[in-house]
Every structure is written in structure tokens, then in C-alpha cells.
TrEMBL record:
Binds 3 Ca(2+) ions per subunit. Two of the Ca(2+) ions are bound to the C2 domain. Residues 447-457 have a biased composition (Acidic residues). InterPro entries: C2_dom, C2_domain_sf, EF-hand-dom_pair, EF_Hand_1_Ca_BS, EF_hand_dom, PH-like_dom_sf, PH_domain, PI-PLC_fam. It comes from Amphiprion ocellaris (Clown anemonefish). This is Phosphoinositide phospholipase C.
Length: 753
């Protein structure tokens, strides 16, 4: 039963089970010994201080993304002289959770933990649906078997149901318990518990769908499954071929396989798998044309990338760059200031945020730029250095990045349009000010002064009292630019924006401007179509208001609706806005580039987000979502007796006309298998730009509802039919096996409907 058994015999895993005393390091001065061991489930790592009474902590191997060997974190580098590299390792977690830096007593012990954790991560990642479910059941059994006798009595079962978010009356629970207790010993062993769990998780709503298509109520013959795929899942021609594949892939019963049929178990496994998910698997891999100009793509972009927290006191950290790049971010920001010993530093100027060295940031970018995606990375330089340290910056960029840094025109020609992500694969582009243009690169007589009003050092107070004075009385501050740094800028020259009219007649495709969120929103209202046209040829970067000192975010969807490509968000701040960003960039292989809809790539486009019906090819759609049920929602409150009262809200983000929210009623005291069976309807005017967010909340009549889980995806990536939505935590990480079961239909909006 326990799928972890075979790996338990591995010598490295044995060391982990026996346990080790490791030093946990938080800073140069905070280094404390903790006892670490792997629990019997082969998944949970438990640790406690030697002195603390009963207090201990645990985390699951599934939360660990990678193990780094040696001095591979800022913390371990800071104590490198004290502890040699072969004793040190770092556990890196998914999402925004901080690293765990550890030091072992011997190189052998360090290696055992490094190899052991890597093997366990690999095992967890390669489990199939059935093994995953077995592991999940086994985990619950371990948690509930308080006296560790390998059996569970009725009292332990009642406690377990509370832990699992199930509020079941005692009579029903006892009935299930008695049915499972085949040996009549008033306790369940693991095999009997599996049977109990199966009865508990029987999905009547899935059974009903199964019954609709099954002739004998026992199985779906090939033809019946094919009908289901054609009628309900809207799969058309490929249904016959797909039905065969699904039976081979998901049917656990040998008998059914021999008949070429699918049992209820197999049907449920298919519906819970990636193929039964709401997200179209064909859109998960790279599926878009990557050979169009850069300006034709939305580009995943981060603001103040060096910060892990807020913008006044937060920690500046290389880890923040690693996290953003691993999430597929393709445009990172570097704020550079003169450092004390001739070395430029990166931090949020004039604040108490800590400082990191510019050269360390460049090395980190070099190492992590292409781990998540091969497509280009843009370094957005916010340059506050004097000429001398700018030259130091230029040297670091050239020496550390080497061939990865793009410093020349691709074909030696001054471009009429920007190069494509495909042509720029594996390249890092510098976005900064430049002396002159690409045309005059050879002209040595140019002055090295440039106007300094491009982004007002990103300070942009944005309060109503700082309205721009008329252009005539603007005094442009001039600043000196290092020729060496200027020469590294090719396709992303930062310039001040002088209006759409000026851009149409004078601007070059490699010139780009930055706009604060409020300036961008103002342009939408005043000149939506102009902005869309401008963005077909030139890149524009949008950044959050200077007032957002808490690193909060603005809604990126409103800005994407104008075709702006580089919509910079504070990646360190979880919430709705980052859910939308993750949602848009979840498609196309998570490569950080998403091709804009056709009507936003045409220079003569008449599209305006304010008037979507005015464009060619306007075809609104009706989206109907039947929210059927929820499965094993996580507990919001860890108090033993508390159980959630869940409701589902579906939110549409898109052009102003498409913004909408609808929600179901709440279900009292059931986070385990709530059933709503409510239908929510929407009309979508610009489906190509719409994002759909499914949000599950714990209803509270006295205060704000608590967040339980969410999933956001582009409307164009939705698969119609009976689908599961696998929920994500606030941090964007998976929370298996929490899901929603829905039935989705999408149809054209006819005048009569």
C-alpha cells in the first residue's frame, strides 16, 4: 500500500529517516542546531530545536523545488569562511517561501541529505494519479493514528473527519466505519481505511454523468465514451482516437481493459487528470508563432525586482531575481546607485532597503536567465550612477554576460521593426538611455548628455497636486552618460514620450517609453485606439505608482487591453494582480511571451478597449459555467473544530464591458465535498483578451470572506465540458487534491439569445 516503501531502502533516505543534527542558518549571527528527520511517510521532513519542549516544525518534500549544493545563497556565502562548501546546502521552496540554509557536520552527511531530498522530489514528481491518491490516503492515516498502533478506532476516525474538513453526523460516520470494519475489531487497519476513504469520497455527481452515457450502469464501452467526448467535451473528430487513449491511460481494472471499456474509477481518474482539467493541454506547451516583432507580444515583467518585501524597509536580495526568472519573468528591473568603493549597488534609492552589488545581480541573471525559458530577457536599467560607475557597470555587463549580451544589430541593418523572440533566443537585452540612435552609431561627435526626465527616477509621486506644468516651462535636467554603457543599448533605447502624433512621424521602433499606471490609464480614456496602434510598433513599459510603498499592484489586464507589452508588477506581492499575470503567462510553455491577438498587431487597427464592438471580426460569446461541486478544499483556520463554509465566485477580467463577477451561494460546514449545482452566465465581448478567475472563499457574514484557493486562465485556453479546476494557494502553488468540478459551455451570442 505505502508507495514510499521501495525508496525507504535507499541508503541516503535511510540516513534521513535515522535523522541528523544540522545547523539552520538565517544570518551571519543566527546559526542554530536543529534535529532533522524524514518521517515514515517518506514525504514529511520534521525538525525541532534540541532544547524546545514539544514544539516542532514540518514541511513536505513536495514543497521543495530544488536543492542547491555548497555556498549557493547569500546567507551561506556570508559564512563561507566559517563553514566549507562541502558541508553546506540550501533547500529552495516553491512560491514565495524563503529558503532553508543548512550546514551538516560532515561532507558525507551533507551529500546524503542532498541526494536523498533530490530522490524524494523526483519520486513525488513522477507519481501517477493513483500513487498520488494512495500517498494522500496514507498521509491521513498517519496523521489520525495518534497512538501509532497501525489501527484507527472510531474516536480517531471522528477526529480525522474534522481534520479533513468534513462535518458528518455521527450516525452516518459510524455506518461507514462499520461497513469498512470487515474484521469486526472496532478498528480499521490501513487496507480497511482505504475502503472507508473510498466510500467517503464517492462522487455521486460523477456517477450521475457516468450513468447518462453507460448502457449497463457498470462501464462505458468504447463507443459510449466516444459519445461522451463528442457531446459533452465537444471534442469532435478526434473523439474515437482519444477514447481509446483515455482507456489505456486511466483504466485501473484489468477486466475493463480487456473489454476495451472504462469503469467508474477510470472515468473519475480521467476527469481529475490534466486532460480532464479546464486548461487546454495543447496550450500548455509552446504553441504560438514566435517569429513576429517583439512589440507583438505581452512580456512577463517585474518591477523593483531586487525587493522581497516592501519598498521602504524591505530586503534587497539576489533571491528575488532568481524567483522572478524562475517564474518565467522576461523583463527585470535594476536600480543602480554609486557605491562606496567604486562598485555600483542596487537598492531602492533614498530608502532603508538594503543594498546588493550590481555585479552580483548580473551574475545571478546570467545563471538563471534561461532556466525557465529560452526567449530573451530584458534588463531594465534605472541608472542613478555617475559616469565613472556607469563605465564599471558596462564592463561588468560585458565581462559577466559575454556572448549572451546583445550588443550589435542582428543583421547589421537599422531595423524597420523589432526582431522576434525567436531571433533573440538566449540573448539578454539592455534597456537604458542611449547617446544618439542606431543610425548615428558611427558619429563620434555626439554629445554625451541626455535629458533626464524619462521616469523621474521612478519616484513619480503621482499625487493630484503634481500635474505636469505646460511643456514650455519644463526645465529638462541633463545628465551625463557613459559612452561604454550607451553602446550596449541596441533595441531598447529609453526615451521620453512626446505624444502619439510625434511618435507616428518621428519615433523609431527601437525607442521605448515608460509610463506610470495613472498616465497609462489616462491615455486609455483619451486615446485608446492611438495607444493600441503605437504598441504595434514600439514597446511600452508601465510601472506601479510611486505611492505603492507597500509593493501593492495595479490590475495589469486594463493595461494589456491597450496592447502594452511590458506591464511591470511587484512579483514579490501575492494577490489578484499576480494571479492574473500567472494566468496569462501559464500558456505557451510558460515562456514569458504571449502573442497579442491579431487586431492588436495590425498598425491600422481601429480597436479600442472602450468600444470593442467597433473592430473587424467582432464576435461576442456566451460563457455558461455550471459550478457542480468542490473536492477536499484546504482548511482556512487550523483550529481543530473549524470547518469552512465555501462559496465559488467567477470573475472575468478583460475590456471594461467584460469586467464581471457572479457567485454561488455558500454551503455550511463542508469543505470536503460541497455540492452547489448552480449556473453562472456571462457575455464576453473580447474573448481574446479575457481572463477568467475561479475563486473559492470561506463565507463569513460578520467580516470579510477568507481566501481558500483560486485558479486563473485565459478564456482562449478553456476546454468546454465537464472539467476539474485544480486550485492554487494565495502564493500560486498547487494544493492537491483540492479542486472544483464544473460543466462549461461556450456558444456564439445570437441576437435572439
Amino acid at each position: 500500500m505505502d508507495s514510499g516503501r521501495s525508496i525507504q531502502d535507499d541508503p541516503d533516505v535511510k540516513v534521513m529517516i535515522a535523522g541528523s543534527t544540522l545547523r539552520k542558518v538565517k544570518s551571519r549571527s543566527w546559526k542554530k542546531q536543529r534535529h532533522f528527520r524524514l518521517l515514515e511517510d517518506g514525504l514529511t521532513i520534521w525538525y525541532k530545536s534540541r532544547w524546545a519542549g514539544r514544539g516542532h516544525s514540518t514541511f513536505s518534500v513536495t514543497e521543495v523545488e530544488a536543492v542547491r549544493e555548497g555556498h549557493q545563497s547569500e546567507v551561506l556565502l556570508s559564512i563561507a569562511e566559517e563553514f566549507p562548501a562541502d558541508l553546506c546546502f540550501t533547500l529552495v521552496f516553491h512560491g514565495r517561501q524563503g529558503n532553508l540554509d543548512l550546514v551538516a557536520d560532515s561532507p558525507e552527511e551533507a551529500q546524503a541529505w542532498i541526494r536523498g531530498v533530490r530522490k524524494l522530489i523526483h519520486k513525488a514528481q513522477t507519481m501517477d494519479e493513483k500513487e498520488r491518491l494512495d500517498q494522500w490516503v496514507w498521509d491521513w492515516f498517519q496523521k489520525a493514528d495518534k497512538n501509532k498502533d497501525g489501527k484507527m478506532n472510531f474516536k480517531e476516525v471522528k477526529k480525522l473527519l474534522k481534520m479533513m474538513n468534513v462535518d458528518m453526523n455521527e450516525e452516518h460516520a459510524l455506518h461507514l466505519f462499520t461497513m469498512a470494519d470487515k474484521s469486526e475489531s472496532d478498528s480499521l487497519e490501513i487496507e480497511q481505511f482505504v475502503y472507508f476513504y473510498k466510500m467517503l469520497t464517492q462522487r455521486d455527481e460523477v456517477w450521475k454523468v457516468f450513468q447518462d452515457y453507460s448502457g449497463d450502469g457498470e462501464k462505458l464501452m468504447l463507443e459510449e465514451l466516444e459519445n461522451f467526448l463528442r457531446m459533452e467535451q465537444q471534442e469532435g473528430e478526434q473523439s474515437a482516437q482519444h477514447a481509446k487513449e483515455l482507456i489505456d491511460r486511466y483504466e485501473p481494472s484489468e477486466t475493463a481493459l480487456k473489454q476495451g471499456a472504462m469503469s467508474l474509477d477510470g472515468f473519475q481518474m480521467y476527469l481529475c487528470s490534466q486532460e480532464g482539467s479546464i486548461f487546454n493541454p495543447e496550450h500548455q506547451n509552446l504553441y504560438q508563432d514566435m517569429s513576429q516583432p517583439l512589440s507583438h507580444y505581452f512580456i512577463s515583467s517585474s518591477h523593483n525586482t531586487y525587493l522581497l518585501e516592501d519598498q521602504l524597509r524591505g530586503q534587497s536580495s539576489l533571491e528575488a531575481y532568481i524567483q522572478a526568472l524562475k517564474r518565467g519573468c522576461r523583463c527585470v528591473e535594476v536600480d543602480c546607485w554609486d557605491g562606496s568603493d567604486g562598485e555600483p549597488v542596487v537598492y531602492h534609492g533614498h530608502t532603508l532597503t538594503s543594498k546588493i552589488l550590481f555585479k552580483d545581480v548580473v551574475s545571478t541573471v546570467k545563471e538563471y536567465a534561461f532556466k525557465a525559458s529560452d526567449f530573451p530577457v530584458i534588463l531594465s536599467l534605472e541608472n542613478h550612477c555617475g559616469v565613472e560607475q556607469q563605465t564599471v557597470m558596462a564592463r561588468h555587463l560585458s565581462q559577466i554576460l559575454g556572448d549572451s549580451l546583445l550588443t550589435t544589430l542582428l543583421d547589421g541593418q537599422v531595423p524597420q521593426q523589432l526582431p522576434s523572440p525567436q531571433e533573440l533566443k538566449g540573448k539578454i537585452l539592455l534597456k537604458a538611455k542611449k547617446i544618439g540612435g542606431l543610425e548615428q552609431c558611427l558619429d563620434e561627435t555626439l554629445t554625451d548628455e541626455v535629458s533626464d526626465d524619462e521616469e523621474m527616477a521612478n519616484g513619480d509621486p503621482e499625487s493630484p497636486c503634481t500635474e505636469d506644468p505646460p511643456a514650455a516651462n519644463k526645465k529638462h535636467k541633463k545628465s551625463k552618460l557613459s559612452r561604454e554603457l550607451s553602446d550596449l543599448v541596441v533595441y531598447c533605447k529609453s526615451v521620453h514620450f512626446h505624444g502619439f502624433e510625434h511618435a507616428r512621424s518621428h519615433a523609431k521602433c527601437y525607442e521605448m517609453s515608460s509610463f506610470s499606471e495613472s498616465k497609462a490609464k489616462k491615455l486609455v480614456k483619451e486615446a485608446g485606439t492611438d495607444f493600441v496602434q503605437y504598441n504595434t510598433r514600439q514597446l511600452s513599459r508601465i510601472y506601479p505608482s510611486g505611492l505603492r510603498t507597500d509593493s501593492s499592484n495595479y490590475n495589469p489586464q486594463e493595461i494589456w487591453s491597450m496592447g502594452c507589452q511590458i506591464v511591470a508588477l511587484n512579483f514579490q506581492t501575492a494577490g489578484l494582480e499576480m494571479d492574473l499575470n500567472d494566468g496569462l503567462f501559464r500558456q505557451n510553455g510558460c515562456c514569458g511571451f504571449v502573442l497579442k491577438p491579431e487586431f492588436m498587431r495590425d498598425a491600422t487597427s481601429q480597436f479600442s478597449p472602450e468600444k470593442p464592438e467597433g473592430r473587424q471580426g467582432y464576435k461576442p460569446l456566451r460563457l455558461s459555467i455550471q459550478v457542480i461541486s468542490g473536492q477536499q478544499l484546504p482548511k482556512v483556520n487550523q483550529k481543530e473544530g473549524s470547518i469552512v463554509d465555501p462559496l465559488v465566485r467567477v470573475e472575468i477580467y478583460g475590456v471594461p464591458q467584460d469586467q464581471a463577477k457572479e457567485e454561488t451561494s455558500h454551503i455550511n460546514n463542508n469543505g470536503f465535498n460541497p455540492v452547489w449545482n448552480e449556473t453562472l452566465n456571462f457575455v464576453i465581448h473580447t474573448p481574446e483578451l479575457a481572463l477568467v478567475r475561479f475563486l473559492v472563499e470561506d463565507y463569513d457574514k460578520a467580516s470579510r470572506n477568507d481566501f481558500i484557493g483560486q485558479f486563473t486562465l485565459p478564456f482562449t485556453c478553456i476546454q468546454a465540458g465537464y472539467r476539474h479546476i485544480h486550485l492554487l494557494s494565495k502564493d500560486g502553488t498547487v494544493i492537491p487534491p483540492s479542486s472544483l468540478f464544473v460543466n462549461i459551455s461556450i456558444s456564439e451570442l445570437t441576437s435572439g439569445s
